[in-house]
Every structure is written in structure tokens, then in C-alpha cells.
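User: Assemble these into one structure.

Assistant: Restating your components, then the assembled model:
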Amino acid sequence: DIQMTQSPPSLSASVGDRVTISCRASQDISSYLNWYQQRPGKAPKLLVSAASDLQSGVPSRFSGSGSGTTFVLTIRSLQPEDFATYYCQQSFSTPPTFGQGTKVQIQ
Amino acid sequence: EVLLVESGGGLVQPGGSLRLSCVVSGLSVTNTYMSWVRQAPGKGLEWVSLIYSGASPFYTDSVKGRFTISRDSSKNTLDLQMDSLRIEDTAVYYCAGGSPKVTTAFDADVWGQGTTVTVSS
């Protein structure tokens, strides 16, 4: 199975900050990498697919980059509604696997 | 608008069975990658099962032989029959799907609100 490792596990930030979350795959997954946002008590929401394709309706302050084994989710200017847990997930091979999550908290 | 609504969760004893159902509107379950993804309390996400036309269903190793995914085209529903339940199956189970916009089977861009399964004696 492909292991997905996110860093950091959690971070504290303020409204307006630029935030970056890293995700590393245990082997080359090309660009088969998705990012999800999960607010407390809610279902995950797909933000970015194919490493850098922003989903329709997702604010442009979110962006994804990377390929191969190293990926990054960037939030350009953190907004109150962005405080949530973010997961990366590889769709390169079965079983599909998620990172352990990065919790973005209010500083 | 696409809407997925799960039902069927509850409390069950170890070794028991439960059947989850997901009513889908706005998408055809027979033409869409449909999945169940779970989240144990305080834990991360785990892809449990996936079904789509032309291929054998996918099951994560820990549920193989115990869970069965199926779909009913007449009702446009997705089901998950869970047998021989274990304490470690306790989780919120999400119904998820891939709209025509997705690239791979394991890109889930539509999700239900989840249904809670608790396995306990």
C-alpha cells in the first residue's frame, strides 16, 4: 500500500496568514493526489484534484502543487471558515489511501 | 443539485449485521463511481468500498468477506451490507460519489452527511 504522510499534524494560524500543508507519498504517484477539507462534524469536501485542479466553487485562495512524491496545499490568506482538518489522498493505485490529516487551528 | 442521504446506522453487538443505504439524487448510481468511506471516532478517513460498472468491487482488506457493496438502479440507491461486525468497524460511514467531472474512480467530489455505526456489547 502507498503511505501518505502529512506535515505538520496540526498548526495554529491567524486570519490572513499564508498556510502550507505538505503531503508525501511513499512512492511515485504522478499527479494522482486529492486534497479534502473537513470541518468538525461535517463530511469531507474535495478541494483539489489531480494535485492542482481547483474544484468548482472553491475559493481561489486555495491552491495545490507538486507531482511524484511531494505535494503542497497552500491557503493564501486564511479565512475564518478555513479552520478545519485537511487530508491528502492518493488515487494512483488501490487501495486509495489518505494522509493522517492536518488540523488548522485558530491562533 | 446532487444529494446523497445515508441511513441505516445504529448500535449493534460484535458479530452482528447492519445494512447501510444511501439514496442518491442528481446522479445515476449505475453510471457513477460510488463508494463508502469511513471515519473512526477521532481518526482519519478510510476508503471502505467502491463499485462501478465493468469492474469488480473494491474492498479494503479489513472488510473483505464481511462487507458487500451493491446498488439498486430502480431506486437509485447504494447499499453496504455489513456482516460479522467488529468493534473496530465503529465509525461514521459516508456515502461518496464521483461525478462525471472526476478523473479517476477514487476521486470523490460528492458526499453524504454520514451515518454512525457503533459496534459494542
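Chain B has a mean pLDDT of 96.
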